[in-house]
Amino acid sequence: MYNGTGLQTPRGSGTTGHVQSNRFSVRPPANNTGADPTKGFVTAGKPNQEILEHDRKRQIQLKLLVLEEKLIDQGYSDAEIAAKLDEANENEDSANNAVLISGKFSAHEKGAMKERQMETLKSALGIDEPSDTCL
Description:
The protein is mainly α. It is 47% helix and 0% strand. It has helices spanning 49-74, 78-95, 107-125. Helix 1 runs antiparallel to helix 2 (78-95). The longest helix has 26 residues, at 49-74. The radius of gyration is 31 Å and the shape is elongated. Residues 98-102 have low confidence and may be disordered.
């Protein structure tokens, strides 16, 4: 007996008890998408706002560090560098436009962009939140 298939013992059956697998049997694929057909489309998890905020602050700090190195190379004094860095930090915080230098996006950034895109699409099409009565 192999994996619960075949004879318990080949005695008296007139065979050797050898079990062959059917390699041409096609099984339907398992539906492991996690989608509930009554809920509609599968959506990704919500983006973590703390991670997005941390990445934004990190990008600002990176820009400030590059600016500081550039100012040191240009020969500014420590007081002038500190003043310019404070001014640049104020501008970055007020602008709130953290663009990734590498051009790559994390999963949380992609999720946030997709969420904004879906909100824009919903408002353009006039779609409200789905109700339980319509399927």
